[in-house]
Amino acid sequence: xxxxxxxxxxxxxEDVEPRQITITRSFxxxxxxxxxxxxxxxxxxxxxxxxxxxxxxxxxxxxxAGPSFITTQVWEPDGGQFGIAAIxxxxxxxxxxxxxxxxxxxTAVALYISEYAxxxxxxxxxxxxxxxxxxxxxxxxxxxxxxxxxxxxxxxxWISTYFGWIPIFSVEGSDPNDPLSTATVFTSxxxxxxxxVAIMVAPFTTAVMREVFSQAPVGEREGAYALGATKWxxxxxxxxxxxxxxMIGGTMLGLGRALGETIVVALIISPxxxxxxxxLQNGTNSVAxxxxxxYGEATPFGTSALMAAGLALFLITLVVNFAASxxxxxxxxxxxxxx
Amino acid sequence: xxxxxxSLTALDDQFRESRTRTTVxxxxxxxxxxxxxxxxxxxxxxxxxxTGAAASALGVTALLFTLLPLSGALGFIVIAYLLFVVVYxxxxxxxxxxxxxxxxxxxxxxxxxxxLMLLALVFVVVFTVLRGxxxxxxxxxxxxxxxxxxxxxxxxxxxxxxxxVGTLIxxxxxxxxxxxxxxxxxxxxxxxxxxxxxxxxxITEAMTALPSIVAxxxxxxxxxxxxxxxxxxxxxxxxxxVMMLPIMIRSADVVLRLVPGSLKEAAYALGAGQWxxxxxxxxxxxxxxLMTSIILGTAMGIGETAPVLLTAGFTAxxxxxxxxxxxxxxxxxxxxxxxxxxxxxxxxxxxTAAVLMLLVLILFAIARIIGGRGPGNLTKFQQRRRAxxxxxDSQRFxxxxxxxxxxxxxxxxxxSGPRSxxxxxxx
Lengths: 339, 427
Description:
The structure holds 2 protein chains of 2 kinds.
Chain A: H1 27-65, H2 68-71, E1 75-76, E2 81-82, H3 85-116, H4 119-134, H5 137-163, H6 190-214, H7 218-226, H8 231-260, H9 263-268, H10 287-294, H11 300-330
Antiparallel strand pairs in A: 1-2
Helix pairs in contact in A: 1-11, 3-6, 3-8, 4-6, 5-6, 6-8, 7-8, 8-11, 10-11
Chain B: H1 5-23, H2 44-67, H3 73-95, H4 98-136, H5 140-143, H6 161-191, H7 195-207, H8 212-226, H9 233-257, H10 261-269, H11 274-285, H12 287-303, H13 306-311, H14 330-338, H15 343-370, H16 380-406
């Protein structure tokens, strides 16, 4: 309620000074604040230490490699020839293919759980998705390597036969007219690794999306229905526009995970050191898998070269994460996606 | 559109006629109550459309597969599904509008993708348990290590006790580091706002992007290569801590931010200091959320392979000392097992992965039981306890007032001047 306030004597307020607020903290509180501050400092020191150490060690390798670090495809640190062109391209191909698979899957599952699922099973589905997001990646890696690999070859062959004219789907060494042509050109490919990474990332992305979809305001939903919208019309005009920020943010957080995924990729791929844009073809690479497979035999200089690769990966993930959080922060649905 | 006088007159006539009809009607109320309008549920046409579309899709696909050189179960399913969607759309369009058709098609596609995806997720778990079943049914799998068992030994020899113990030791050390530091830092971010805490928050948020393998590489290159420490469980715990710390701080920060400001202000208004407000109001209120974030962080730390791979070394025997000698965790053991071509070792790998999932499941169940409630939402038991404490407080106050009256204080109820407030035990 608005109350009108008329000062009786305007003049008397001019010489009033704001009250001085002094906070006297007890010894306990001072000690407590000191402890909190020092824990903040400790965390800051640890985090900066990690960053500085990584950069310092990476610089050794970068100084030797120079700008060719970005353009070289081979990885022979001890021979002086090494660069991240091939492995970074492989990482990005795997992560983006995975994300392209994840977006429709996660959106559909999230919409199903928040809009279509019967009330009786809704809670169990939410729990199932959350639980699957916590399943260790090595489990997905095993599944991909021992089960999916064999079953994906047929699909890869089919895509390359009918869509081989699109450059990224073409596969060298496979002849669709030759029934005896080998299937091994289709194994250990970017595509198969990406499918497994997608299944691994999907629960995580789905959980974020479901959360924002379920928060679409009831009033707007019912408004859409009252104007004669069908369920799909309501979803398209209320739920998806409301959840768009969360969808983008969740997808980008998933992309961050896909970029850094180690074990799944290391289990499935067969490493090559050329830029491999044919996603169905055998052989690809990723930074995380490279580190996992090469750290053991690396010389001190080789280790710092791996550090440089790790630093490059970290920077990319960092950009993706910050972009995600700025997208989330700018939208209406964003508040819910803070984990 | 043009309107001529004739048509207007015709309309007017129609109108007048209709008015006459409505006014001079001898309307009788229906004998029974009107049936309520149906607003949901299945209609017969819906069922007919779905079954009809399914039947025709199956039939046409079967025909195509006999006539054309097509083969493969997957191809059959895909073609049948596409035909089903098309035929269903056509059938619905016979007695519905365009937007209703779009609605039905969208619903069909969403249902099928969701079903497929959830099936795939469940299948990943079932597949792991099935493949590891031969290893899981042997009790020695949980009580022995692999020291005496070679790769060719049958599954009734050897087990993963060393990996289970290793996982528990590594995660325990990591939690001892991460929980106090992480929660103290999250409280710092919330309680002492300013430029410095903004800096810490930004750096922490940036470090959540650190790929886990890079965290492992950091510990490997610093502790092991530079300081010459051996690969050990302790090094692995440090690597996992570096990875978990920013994630834990971030989720604890979010949980603490949800604590209602009015609760804290009430505590300050009653004269409590910052420490007692945090200890007696903020942390108890956020307890369930904090527990959830700790447990989910733990589940993630347990399942992480990459940092442990670089820092823990490999051993086949039980090692309970984290500072000396290599140690192995469950995900790392899985990784090592499945690298072997031997079927029994692969079965052990799947068994190990299943044990790991079980561990995560247990943690998750604990998180569900403790967490899942917003701040201030109490269980029945907690509510009863709180009511009991409240009664005790009120009795205490009555007694104190009575004592004060007895001791001759003039006005016990509204005594002025500062006096120490006794909050009792808030927990």
